[in-house]
Structures
1.
Amino acid sequence: MRAHEHWLLIAQEDLDSAKHLFNRSFITTLFHVQQCAEKSLKSYLVRKSNLVIKTHDLVKLVDLCLEFNNEFEVLRSLAAVLTPYETAGRYPDNSFKKPSQEKIQKLIEQSEYIFNFVIQK
């Protein structure tokens, strides 16, 4: 298995985990949603440059993908929405409010969109 394929395999596992945990653990679901998007974008970068970028900032990863393909611009707004869920809710913070089930479902769909977009590229 090539390196970028391994990244995609793990991204798929994160997506599957988010879907499985949807009605059980919203904080863990949100983490896996962000991780799926992050690992998907990193798989593209590994494929194109053979470099692993050490960041959790999805917008930064989209910017790096844009250096190879300007079609990644469509992911910018999704990346901005999903980035905070790498840490949101995982540490005590009174400002964090649990998203509605509808919002969590939408976040799963957005992460899956990024995953599928990367597969197509």
2.
Amino acid sequence: MKKKITAAAFGVALVAAAWTLTAGASRADAPAWNPHAAASYLDQRADWWTTWPGAARDHETFCVSCHTAAPYAVARPALRRVLGENAPSTAEAKLAANVLKRVRMWREVEPFYPDQTRGVPKTSESRGTESILNALVLSSRDAAAGALSDDARQAFDNMWALQMKTGDQTGAWTWLNFHYEPWEAERSPYYGATLAAVAIGMAPGHYAATGDIQDRLKALRAYLQKGADSQHLFNRINLLWASTLLPDLLSAEQQRSIIDAVRRAQQDDGGWTMSRFADWKRIDNT
């Protein structure tokens, strides 16, 4: 059930974001799409997540999941613009308050999955994952306001402090691995690095041009470029997204290659299935 719910939420989030990019184009031949229903669905799923006992964490906070909460945080503001809403929804505000609390209490709150209860190296995986997701959520929020907040800067500082400096993962971050493709599995550090690039590129106030992050940003670009052509489609789609926000990640030819791959993965009914984006099996091994 969890896989079905999160995949559906992720799909609606992508559709919401894509719809805003094409809103100005002719839609005479497109099927009717209801942004109000999409917003309602996303709000309901996000609100459910914030109250689900399985998501509860230290200091009365909840886990900001890369498969449910993070896509919601990025997509929901796009729908707000389409719907003419003047303020974040209740679920958006609740998610932002949770992230702000954990950023401000970064040295006090326990990681999402401590080593003491989940085994090594879950603490480092949790910290690396959360640092990126916090930066992504706050950068997305601040992009709408047009100015980067002190809290978002702190989130980025937390993120950069955990960037890997040696080995194959140089330029990336440790990432949660529960063998849960494509969000939390062996190849997911690459996914996390694409989200870090999205957060940086999305940040207002020319944050990506900040002088003291250029060496770190160079390492991130090198990591993403090194693995660009060998990733499964899910990671490549996220890399494509990042490349639209952060210059010099991909060439035009590489971008076109990913777009063509997405089109080839489209099903006869017009949609896509997550099993075409990455290699994963259900819990019953099918």
3.
Amino acid sequence: MPIENINGVSIFLQEFGSGSPLVLVHGSWVDHMEWPFVVPLLAPRFRVTVYDRRGHSQSQRLPTQGSIREDVADLAAIIERSGAPAHVLGISMGASISLRLASERPHLIRTLNVHEPPLFDLLLEDASTRPITEELNERFLVVADSLASGDMEGGARKFVEMVIGPGTWDTMLPDDVKRMLINNAPTFLDETRDPDILGIDTAALSGFRGPVLLSDGSETPPFFTMVLDKLAAVLPNATRKTFAGAGHIPHVTHPQEYVAAITGFIDASS
């Protein structure tokens, strides 16, 4: 089993292909199997690294309270292992982690591709978007309360249907995916207890001068697009991309279009 010691934690990690290093950072609840449709398309061009973030699936879950800072430190170590600077691609919470690394250690990142980071604290900054964040916090609390009570499946169902859409749990998710979400639910509960998880230092982020692709889907909840608007205003070299007909997981629903956008962006940036 490809287990590496990263910052004192056992991390499941795999590499595919050859070329410039490209590190993929998955979101909450899931694991390295978030990427099966895009890795074969990326591997002919890049040395692709995928891994289970700490607390997810085959990586070690510590009994102590975790933090997004630990995820950022893990990503930094993985990039240094793979060869810095690297192209970095993050989805959802993986996008938040990647953006934090860009703000703290920009020299590690060659290009940055982020899709719908849940940095909802950015929406607290003005009166027009503050109610949206307050409502989201209430909805996340409902999920967290279910998980804290021991109802891992109920909490997972509520989260999936909040982010992707009503009925998703029963109509779209195969049983193995449901099992993965339920297994990783305790780590999401841990994330909800991290006070830094939904914010970012925009002043520090503005210092990242590398190329950034900020993407969303046309069918995604509008609060993700609002977050991207905030990020685009502070990142000096940002490009926007909306995937028509896609939502929060274009790498699953529209893999060829997603990879074409990523590789095109990297080529143009180079």
4.
Amino acid sequence: MKAKKPAVISALLKYRTTEAMRDRVNDALDIHGGRAVQDGPSNYLFSGYMTTPVAITVEGANILTRTLITFAQGALRRTPTSMPRSRRRRTRIGGTASRRSTSLRRARQLHAAHMTGSFLHALSGGRFASTPVQHEMARWYRALARYSQSFALVGDWTVAFLGGDLKRKQRLSGRMADILSDLYLLSAVLKRYEDEGRIREDAPLIDAIAKDHLFAIEQNLRPCSPISPIRS
């Protein structure tokens, strides 16, 4: 079996986990106060604080990983409406007029269906979005499906309007990377909850994590929202 190389997932996990580590270490120093800055054998925080910048900058600085790799380097080629466009470009040379027309018509149909579905999910709050489960976490699966569709739609229009200029719009690509990472992390949390047997005591924690990720997604999707730094 051929080994998988998920470059986009590896990038988003790298920048989100190392930024989370930096936030936690900074919070720990705030709590410990003066003891945390006095280097010595009993200070168990200082060495971690000193090495944290290494994780942020090595194997790709986080700011570049976020703005140039996670979203801008091909993530949209996995959306249902962008793949037909790429196939259509490949048929321009050597393809018949009939094939080009069929490909174009199919891409337009997919875009129309995708826009309609995203609009209806937004109006209904994701009430009718698909969910693979029928238990207490179904609402989060529906929200995940709703915002995944919204992300794909916004991503398609972003590329359609900006094209190659997207590489220079690093604040915008950074916000899209944050949305993608929040969607992925929420899906990972829900999967772990299922894999561990849906432990009842974990449900409030899952709810809190889901609310945090969905709030961040909504903030990044707002057209006039302030540009926030990397989230942890």
